[in-house]
Amino acid sequence: MIKKGVINGAKGILNILPNEEKHWNKKDSLTNGVLYSICINLIEKVESIRILEEKQVTNSIAIIVRSFLELYVQYDFILKNETDKRAKSFYYNYKLNVGKKIKVMIEQSNIQVTNEDLERLKSELPDAKNYDDYIDHYEKLSNDLYDNSNNHSQKWYNLHGEKRKFKQLMLNCGFTERDYEFFYGLGSMDIHGNSSVVNVNFSKNIITESSIPVYVIDEAISRWLNTALGNYAKFYGIDNKKVVKNYLNQIAMSIEGSISLRK
Questions:
Q1: Rounded distance, CA 133 to CA 121, Å?
Q2: Mean pLDDT of all residues in the chain?
Q3: Peptide bond preceding 18 in cis form (omega within 30 of 0)
Q4: Do 222 and 104 meet the contact criterion of CB atoms below 8 Å apart?
């Protein structure tokens, strides 16, 4: 099971910022928001995995692992280079996709946009009269970040004409082919329901299990979260602070403790 020390250590590092105003205010405000939100989301996913493990409901954990991995890889990519530009592309792409999905839902369901909906739009974009304006706004902001704004892959991370898909992005971020096939591939099977029968254990009682062994998940997720928060601290220049080192040591010791218990 993922140790509480891993989660508490990660939260401890995250909570140091934005209170460290000297370091926080040096960075772009949108970048701050994107990185902070991603780290919160990563921690919440780890907490969800721990809750499911506590309740011994492990058959859906691989789905959360795949979601965690997707977000972690994108987060790692944002931090590696051109952080402000990549953070903007990530954020604008998210807003654009949300707008498009809401528009489709409205059109297909014959739902009328209420005054309350319009007020919500205007609170974000004062000149927006409808979701078309909202979509156009974020589409322009997104397209302007690409080297060729009129012809690109539609992937927010392919800003310079690359044709990468997610697998290639993982490899570019230092993951191996094995990591992709094991964590992402097996997680995908759970998402699409392909493993619903395969994961049934008929040994004594009929129970369902994760397609990825839980102890493998615990170690990998804990290690990735440790790296994510360590890189977060490094980005803001607080990685040498004693309190941060203590939290990172807490996470590392919790991971080592889990491994030792299995030996």
A1: 9
A2: 87
A3: yes
A4: no
